[in-house]
Specification:
alpha/beta, 13 strands, 42% helix
């Protein structure tokens, strides 16, 4: 076996090591960065896909959500969007609804017309009192929430469209029970309550104090349901529902929530089983809206109750809410012209 001479060893040790060229180093860094970006993109893509799958598979599709096309207003060409949101509560006091308990679960306890302007700078939610006395197409005058029992979701849509002369683009029905899981998924929601009260469903367990209250799921459900504690019954309940929705929207769009994948996943998973939507109102459509609302803040969500003329009595003796047709006409025109923000400001409505 031969060994290198001392001279050869010195030459080998003293020979400078080959240095990587700056171009090759930069290329490796860029390739490494690109690989990281690709991996992150794949992870995000899978995460978003899973969220979409959770929503689409968890929600119930309303196959026939809309009335016959010949009865409907023409589609809005401004780019604005109208969504009819209906809330139902299977555990409510049925005795106040009708003598026939078999149909009460088909009545919408809460009706909201959500208008999204073309510029996507605001969201307007107009609460319609459930006892508002209106003309229900094909059935004559009745409380607006009776439209559900008389003709299901399509007739409710047709009734709202006939009142405002505006087309409804999407429909969502939410069971009040969904608020419970959603609130808990968010770790509770803080609501600034105007007037304290003790809810009848949790009597002896909790009292809502004036000021800021942190609501868990059970308390949130009691808060949005309650009406017996108030002299004006449904008026205060609608205001409290608006108050809670404002608070929960603020929590959902907060940086703390949106940057926490676990919270977002739990939120979608908890609320989806309690939502029914028209077949085109899927995760893709909602995701597109979410991107358009990237700069939306709590102050940009405007809620108000459809103006009315107070309480009256129908010819058959029912206690009803009298519709303010002049106000309805003004709001309808503002929606048609995509000028609802100006109308709300001019008439002192909102929040």
């Amino acid at each position: 076996m031969t060994h290198p001479t001392d001279t050869e060893a010195v030459e080998t040790q003293s020979r400078p090591r080959r240095q990587k060229s700056p171009k090759k180093t930069a290329r490796n860094v860029l390739l490494g960065f690109a690989a990281v970006v690709v991996v992150i993109g794949l992870i995000c893509g899978a995460y978003i896909y899973n969220l979409a799958q959770t929503f689409n598979s968890g929600t119930t599709k309303i196959e026939a959500a809309f009335p016959d096309e010949t009865t409907r207003p023409t589609k809005n060409v401004t780019g604005a969007m109208n969504i009819l949101v209906m809330g139902k509560d299977k555990n409510r006091d049925r005795s106040l609804e009708t003598e026939d308990p078999s149909v009460t679960d088909q009545r919408a306890d809460t009706l909201m017309l959500v208008h999204i302007p073309a510029d996507r700078k605001n969201v307007f939610a107009i609460s319609i009192m459930r006892d508002t006395w209106v003309n229900i197409p094909g059935h004559g005058e009745a409380k607006i929430n009776a439209s559900m029992s008389l003709g299901g979701v399509p007739l409710t849509v047709q009734t709202v469209e006939s009142i405002f002369k505006q087309r409804i683009d999407h429909v969502a029905m939410v069971d009040f029970e969904g608020f419970k899981g959603l609130t808990d998924a968010l770790g509770g929601v803080e609501v600034n309550i105007k007037t304290g009260f003790t809810p009848s469903v949790l009597k002896g367990k909790v009292t809502f104090q004036p000021g800021k209250n942190l609501l868990d799921g059970e308390k949130a459900l009691a808060f949005v349901r309650e009406r017996k504690s108030f002299p004006d019954s449904d008026y205060s309940r609608v205001k409290n529902q608006q108050l809670f929705l404002k608070a929960i929207i603020s929590k959902i769009i907060s940086k703390e929530t949106l940057t926490n994948p676990i919270t977002v996943n739990n939120m979608v998973d908890s609320i989806s089983p309690y939502i029914s939507v028209d077949k085109d109102f899927d995760a893709g459509t909602i995701g597109g809206l979410a991107l358009q609302f990237k700069d939306l803040r709590e102050k940009d969500t405007v809620m108000f109750t459809l103006p009315n003329l107070g309480v009256g009595t129908s010819t058959d003796g029912q206690s009803i809410v009298l519709a303010d047709n002049a106000a309805i006409s003004g709001i309808a025109t503002a929606i048609e012209q995509d000028q609802l923000a100006a109308y709300v400001t001019a008439n002192g409505l909102g929040n």
